[in-house]
Amino acid sequence: MIPVGFDYQRPELLDAALALLAEHGEDATVLAGGHSLLPVMKLRLAAPEVVIDIGRLAELNYIRLDGDEIAIGAATRYRDLVVSDVLAQECALLPAVARTVGDPQVRHRGTLGGALAHGDPAGDLPAAVLALDGTIVLRSPRGERRVPITEFYTGVFSSVKEPDELIVEIRLPRTGSTGWAYEKFTRRSNDWAIVAVAVATLPSGRRQLGLVNMGSTPLRASATEAALAEGKPIDEAAALAAEGTEPPQDNAGTPAYRRHLVTVLTRRALQTATA
Ligand SMILES: Cc1cc2nc3c(=O)[nH]c(=O)nc-3n(C[C@H](O)[C@H](O)[C@H](O)COP(=O)(O)OP(=O)(O)OC[C@H]3O[C@@H](n4cnc5c(N)ncnc54)[C@H](O)[C@@H]3O)c2cc1C
Fold it and tell me: 77 with 158, same domain?
């Protein structure tokens, strides 16, 4: 299908993008990689009057160390995450997860900020950032605020982000090149996950897990994390991975199948992360 007609704006500067967003409010939508927004517009599930393209804003495209954190601009593309030397050394989970998204075309267009803003519970990157206890930096003409990703999602495809706010940066702890794993279960290599599990080991030594496609929002495996913190063995902790989840029913699997799958993938991921 063809989207409803819209006005296209491509500001050269971040401040101009923020001003446009403030001016048009809920009539405007931000375009980053377009790989989630454009399908939604073509299906006419979204019909913004103004589309503000931030995908080429250099101010939002960077990966750099900042003290004991890594700062990543929101318009940084998956491909840039995959080839980043900084991330390979300082937060190897993120590029490993980005490498599994879609196909090369998707990875050359899709952005980290777009994936987090979209908040698809079947998306790979939100689970990784959750496992890493990342922080989302939001900016509007009213100022800037930092929201832990654990407080970001409020429901299906919804978050605490206000209509005039942009995600400008994602901040992650420096977790190094070991202690992580990503187990993504798909029918074909380029597919979306039926279920996936991301494991990160934080600088404190705490192991955290993000789950893909196990509920209406990206989720953490809280019961597994608590069991690990109490020193329980991997098998016992992994058996709790489905606790508190509400996996969907679709053509790829039933909720019961996903509940079983998540325990298997969690066990494998924890074994890899601790090997
Ligand atoms: C064929 C195909 C296969 C795919 N396979 C996978 C897969 O295996 N795994 C996976 O995780 N994803 C997959 N995707 C989705 C892909 O990862 C998208 O790129 C991603 O979900 C959205 O990122 P984007 O930059 O394209 O955002 P866009 O589509 O441009 O935007 C998505 C939403 O976020 C908003 N937004 C974007 N950037 C910002 C910002 N900085 N601040 C505030 N709001 C913002 C937009 O307004 C829009 O509502 C696939 C997509 C396609 C088309």
Answer: yes
